[in-house]
Design a protein that fits this description.
Order of helices and strands of chain A: HHHEEHHHHHHHH
Number of helices of chain A: 11
Oligomer: homodimer
Largest interface: A-B, 58 and 57 residues
Largest sheet of chain A: 2 strands, antiparallel
Strand order of the largest sheet of chain A: 1-2
Helix content of chain A: over 70%
Distance between the termini of chain A: 61 Å
CATH superfamily of the largest domain in chain A: GntR ligand-binding domain-like
DNA sequence: AGACGTTTAATTGTCTGACAAATGAAAATT
DNA sequence: AATTTTCATTTGTCAGACAATTAAACGTCT
């Protein structure tokens, strides 16, 4: 764990990288305690604030956790899926909002990934996953539901579908794609008729998953993808008509 | 952008969250300059080191960039796919290494996602993507290639396959899954015969993509997934035999 | 007037030293 | 033996200072 002694700029970034590399390589195992800030400052020959800035960088990535007190310090953190979810959703959301990603591109990616899960979900779905999907489709039929609540329920439905695949790596990867789409979906106002059609497709998907019919699930997901694209195009067209 | 004035613990985390929320909500647009560290310290009523720790947290997530000098400061960073790749790969790698994810689970997720890309890749592949895939399959036939180099070429082949879908969101999502698998793949020693079979499957996949035959591409990918699992099981079985 | 070097102000990067707060362990007391 | 007190360690925060960098403002020479 060394830093470049000549380049005295971005010291905290260099130190963070050195420690991060040690963690990734396994030299620092999970729950290992790092030296105290004072000791790290001595080792790297920098001041304590510089060490602290480096540690905060690592904390922002959930690579370490810190604890105050006599036996406290910085510990290598076991990166949990739930921690990673949050980061992925933040990153994906910003990527979509900052890079002029079209709705079509984001939507295509989302449904492509989701269709990859469907066969596994059909095979392994539990009663719990099915119950969640049914509950959400039921919620989506409530009359007074706001568009935001409808979209949130939509996300919950698709999360259950993905989780039913029983593969945490897939769930993690999909979390970003599905949740990052929500702000874009919220921009669409769902008419009563469009909601009805979406709920019908959700029901068909849940039926197919329950029947363990991967082919049917895929077909209904494809139909839902196509219909979502169609709705978005209508919204975009109407907006441009208003302008013109 | 406010912080809890009562809770004077984790101030830098609170400040980082306040600024992060402002960026995500769009209140701070891309390339907007944040107030100077001294001004932020005044606004939040904390010291400059505390502000700096908060800014370093955001820098670790590529949400801001800093520049020294008279017109310098911290600027909201346009999150590029390139930056996000790195973070996703780091996170995915650590998730796999720290959470006792089996090879089977990771492999299943990877190939499920990749098969989601295949139809789009078959439809949209350019000469450039095909050339990369051909070049990598050719490289994989070199006799003196180390296992690491073979795996690196394998990653490059699959990256080209994914990029051929022409959807940057998919490429971003897949980057984590494909690259994070590399350390696990490196643990497998590829015999001459297994390499031969893998190269044959790669060639079949490239052929199918070139012919824009999505169904064939999917079938060959499925075969590759099954064969990879088979190889891994052999390695695991041999290791256990050595122990016993 | 225009081109070119110089100064200057603003800003981040780093350092030093200090104190507060939390926390577990050791010591003292009942 | 159980409980309370004290204490050492460590992180969290603060104040002030100086160095390094950078672009704009200024001055000088042609």
């Amino acid at each position: 764990m060394k830093i470049d002694p000549k380049n005295r700029a971005d010291l905290s970034a260099q130190i963070a990288k050195a420690i991060r590399d040690a963690i990734i390589s396994g030299a620092l195992p999970v729950d290992e305690r790092l030296p105290s800030e004072a000791e790290l400052a001595d080792q790297f020959e920098v001041s304590r604030p510089t060490v602290r800035e480096a540690l905060k960088r690592l904390a922002a990535q959930s690579l370490i956790r810190t604890q105050r007190g006599a036996t406290g310090g910085a510990f290598v953190n076991r990166l949990k899926f739930e921690d990673a979810y949050g980061q992925q959703i933040t990153t994906s959301t910003l990527l979509l909002s900052m890079n002029e990603i079209s709705f079509a591109t984001a939507c295509e990616a989302r449904y492509a990934l989701e269709r990859a899960c469907a066969p596994l979900s059909a095979e392994r779905r539990t009663a719990d996953h099915l119950a969640t999907m049914r509950a959400e489709t039921h919620r989506q039929q409530q009359p007074g539901l706001t568009d935001e609540a409808f979209c949130a329920s939509d996300v919950a439905f698709h999360r259950a579908l993905v989780d039913a695949a029983g593969n945490p790596v897939l769930s993690y990867q999909l979390a970003g794609a599905v949740e990052a789409m929500q702000p874009l979906m919220n921009m669409i106002t769902f008419s009563a008729r469009s909601r009805e059609k979406i709920v019908a497709l959700h029901t068909s998907i849940a039926d197919a998953i329950e029947a363990q019919d991967a082919h049917a699930a895929d077909a209904h997901l494809a139909a839902l993808a196509a219909y979502t694209q169609e709705l978005a195009q209508d919204v975009i067209a109407k907006r441009q008509a208003k302008r013109g």
